[in-house]
Design a protein that fits this description.
Its EC number is 2.1.2.2. The protein has 190 residues and is of the alpha/beta class. Helix content is 37%, strand content 19%. It folds into 2 domains: 102 residues, 3-Layer(aba) Sandwich (Rossmann fold), CATH 3.40.50.170; 84 residues, Rossmann fold (3-Layer(aba) Sandwich). Strand 4, helix 4 and strand 5 form a beta-alpha-beta unit.
């Protein structure tokens, strides 16, 4: 008897290039969840007939109720019986309560070789520091940002004429393949 396939949700907020890469490479995605209308949910997921859920974040103020928002996300995941979550450019930091339910089963990608250059400005920070090599990391997401167990990394050289945009594009090219491979390998361990 073969093991039950694990159900994967991909969280997006923007262009959906990682999601598009997954789907174009035959990767099965059971749900696409977005925090705002975006190309990832409005075009890519719909074109590929992937179920979608928009858990709209309308409040971007300091008073944002992260816990209430996370409870909405958890309800959607449970409704779809999701086993694993892959963050793919999802811009909302979720409350720690999601890790009480999905701890160790939320994957994220980061445009640097963690533990170096954590946070939102990793590519800019790597260039400012003057590194000759950076890259991307796939890791287990935790309540603390960019510190979870590293699942995979790949180096990307920094060229002398790199801008933040050119370097980030080269990192994203590597990231598309690395993330797909890391998710596949991770799911086989469950």
């Amino acid at each position: 008897m073969s093991p039950t396939p694990k159900k994967l949700a991909v969280f997006v907020s923007g262009t959906g290039t990682l999601l598009e890469s997954f789907l174009n490479n035959g990767f099965h995605v059971d749900l696409v969840l977005a925090d705002r209308p975006c190309r990832g949910i409005d075009i890519i997921a719909k074109e590929k007939n992937v179920p979608t859920e928009l858990v709209l974040r309308t409040d971007f103020s300091k008073n944002f109720d992260r816990e209430a928002y996370t409870e909405q996300v958890l309800a959607v995941l449970q409704k779809h019986e999701i086993d694993v979550v892959a963050m793919a450019g999802f811009n909302t930091v979720l409350a720690p309560s999601i890790f009480e339910v999905y701890g160790g089963r939320i994957l994220n990608t980061h445009p640097a070789l963690l533990p170096s250059f954590k946070g939102h400005y990793a590519v800019r920070d790597a260039l400012a520091y003057g590194v000759k090599v950076t890259g991307c990391t796939v890791h287990i997401a935790t309540p603390e940002i960019d510190v979870g167990k590293i699942l995979a990394q790949k180096a990307v050289p920094v060229l002398s004429d790199d801008t933040e945009e050119s370097l980030h594009e080269r990192i994203k090219e590597v990231e598309r393949t690395l993330y797909l491979e890391a998710i596949r390998a991770f799911i086989t361990t469950l």
